[in-house]
Amino acid sequence: MPNQAHILVIDDEQIMREGCSRILSKDGLAVVTAENGKQGLEEIQGHPETIDVILLDLMMPGMSGMEVLDQIRAIDPNLLVIVITGYATVESAVEAMKKGAYDFIPKPFTPDQLRIVVKRALERRTLQKEAEFLRKEREKSLRDIATEKSKIKTIINCMGDGVLVCDRDSCIVLSNPAASRMLKVHESSLIGNFLPQCNLHTELSNLIQESLTTKDKGYTSVSQELSMGDSGEIFLRAHTAPVRNDLGETLGSVTVLQDISHLKELDKMKSEFIAMVAHELRAPLAAVEQQLTVILNKMAGEITEKQEQLLGRAKERTKGLLTLIKDLLDLSKIEAGMMVQYKEPLRLQEVVQKVVDLMRAEAEAKKLDLQFTAPHTLPLINADRNSMEGIFTNLISNAIKYTPEGGKVWVDLVEEGEFVKATVSDTGIGIKKEDLPRIFDKFYRVKTVETRQIVGTGLGLSIVKSVVDAHLGFISVESEEGGGTTFTVLLPKGPIQTA
Amino acid sequence: MAKKILIVDDDPDLVEAVTMILESKKYDVAAAYGGIEGLQKAKTENPDLIVLDVMMPDKDGYAVCKELKADPKLSQIPVLLLTAVVSKIATTRYTQQGGLETEADDYIDKPVEPEVLVKRIETLLAK
Q1: Residue of chain B nearest A325, judged by CA positions
Q2: B7 near B27, Cβ under 8 Å?
Q3: Does the CB of B84 have a partner CB in chain A at under 8 Å?
Q4: Under an 8 A CB cutoff, do A290 and B55 touch?
Q5: Do A354 and A470 belong together in one domain?
Q6: Torsions phi, psi of A472, nearest 5?
Q7: Inter-chain contact A299–B114, Cβ cutoff 8 Å?
Q8: Looking at the complex, does the CB of residue B126 fall below 8 Å from at least one CB of chain A?
Q9: In angstroms, what CA-CA distances link B113 with A289, A455, B116?
Q10: What is the CATH number of the domain that holds A348?
Q11: What is the CATH number of the domain that holds A50?
């Protein structure tokens, strides 16, 4: 019985020892006896944890009960001692209690009296054990928390990325060495200071401030590139996210900083490389096409009809290659995020009008009816003018390409919710259902008898989609084979939040 | 008297092709095969118009154009920039970035259709 309580009886009278043993054993208690103080103390020293309650006779030959009591208290002050007073004197009982005995029982006593006193002491003992257990648990949890805390602190401090944590009052409550290093601010002037006093990069301060103050529930995180250093040679990417409670209240924000200088450097090299390759490819092709043009225009003498036909086809092919190179160049620029850097408030109707005017000659050559409608007033959008010209040139020129003579192409702008909606529709050959999901893929071209004669690179629409994505807009297409096509572009009303 | 046009391009094949286009329209044509030579010929040949390539190894078209426009004797000569690597998007990009680039009087993408080239040249000469 592992939970069996142990009682030690220390008494010089054998009858007392046996009596107590008999009574208490009946109640399922384990009883150990000692006939004098010395023996009793040995018993306790042997295994102090297993003894729950000690019954101690005060009047013993040799070592007195009081002395034994003192020594028991010295071994373990938590041991519960019930003193047995032979000649019921209140004084000795009081003295024993003062010395730390838990209770006393005067001789002679009845078995029930003994049971009551021991039972009370055992209850006390149980409580004591529980309290001890809880105390140990608490200590252990505190130790665990301390370990966990120092673990997290070590991890944060060892991170290569900078970390800044702000509370809701925009006071910095945590930062790591990487953040100090990147921001070139000493840790002591970060932690415990309010944002405006930290002398941080203005854009970074604004970014954090914005994440703390925004009421927009959809605002989850923002990434921004910051140019640091005296000559702007260091680039950081700051990623800031507000921390919210269950009620959606902002409690603070966490900002992670990454040094992206080397990425920027690579990016620049990549762009330069692409520009170089593109030039090396384009220049000879441009020369070849120019030469073909001269021959085809009969500026180098007369040519036969067959020669003209062949050279004309050759010129078409070089044109296609030049367009491919241009598209690849545009695409790599978009992917490098260079294409839509110049966002400004734009009147989309002006941009589209310009494109429509440019395309009119092409449409008229195919006897197509090209129409453009837009309301007098339309909200501004925040967009890159050239990219917008690019996407509408692409969509309208596609519509013209894929619409047979005598058809119709119409462009329409309207305001719709948070967006300006543009639709480019035609009465052209349409797109097969199975081709629809893939038309925004790179290098995907619909192959049919009708499209075989049409020059294209298969990059146009993927560029259009990339540009629309970069403006946080949406593009969709509806089409029926032989029943015309409608492209719908949704562009958010400006000003756009960077996200 | 026929108007004289100076073509500046490091690609001899392109120079030849453009020369043939212009000669067929009865223009006098002078050629230079680099930016530095172009600047010299702008002074010695006394052209009525300059067709100028952008990407040249020794001195690019923008720099040549800037020097031409800074020289009081040459600044009146119209300059038509011929751009191959810079697509339309990039051309406007350059104008947004620097300011110096707007000094050219017109841009044209190469390769160029003969009638488009001739029309642009006529427009510039009529000014």
Answers
A1: B85
A2: no
A3: yes
A4: no
A5: yes
A6: 60, 35
A7: yes
A8: no
A9: 10, 18, 5
A10: 3.30.565.10
A11: 3.40.50.2300
A140 inside domain? no
The CA angle A122-A128-A134, to the nearest 5 degrees, is: 140
Specify whether A14 is located in the same domain as A100: yes
Is the distance from CB of B27 to CB of B5 less than 8 angstroms? yes
The dihedral sign for the CA sequence A451, A456, A457, A459: negative
- Which DSSP category does A497 fall into? P
Contact flag B87-A289 (C-beta cutoff 8 Å)? no
CB pairs under 8 A between A and B: 69
Name the residue range of residue A42's domain. 6-133
CA-nearest residue to A292 within chain B is B17
Residue A434 domain flag: yes
Question: Domain boundary residue among A225, A259, A293?
Answer: A259
Give yes or no for B98 touching A (CB within 8 A).
Answer: no
**Chain B residues with beta carbon closer than 8 angstroms to that of A322:** 111
**pLDDT tens-place values along chain B, 127 residues long:** 789 999 999 989 999 999 999 999 999 999 999 999 999 999 999 999 999 988 788 888 888 988 998 899 999 999 998 876 544 444 444 443 443 445 678 878 788 889 889 998 999 998 7
Q: Is residue A479 part of a domain?
A: yes
A293: nearest CB among B88, B93, B111: B111
Q: Which of B21, B84, B93 sits opposite A283 (nearest CB)?
A: B84
Phi-psi region of A286 (alpha: psi -120 to 50; beta: other; left: phi over 0): alpha
Q: Are residues A245 and A207 in the same domain?
A: yes
**Tens digits of residue pLDDT in A86-126:** 765 778 888 888 888 888 888 888 889 899 999 999 999 88
Interface of B with A in 27-66 (CB under 8 A): 55
Q: Is A455 on the interface with B (CB under 8 A)?
A: no
Q: What is the pLDDT of residues A254-267, one digit of tens each?
A: 999 998 888 878 87
Contact A485, A402 (CB under 8 A): yes
What residues in B contact A280, CB-CB < 8 Å? none
A456 pLDDT higher than 90: no
Of B18, B23, B93, the CB nearest to A386: B93
ipTM: 0.82
Using a CB–CB cutoff of 8 Å, tell me whether B122 touches chain A: no
Tell whether A203 is covered by a domain: yes
Beta pairing partners, A241: A254
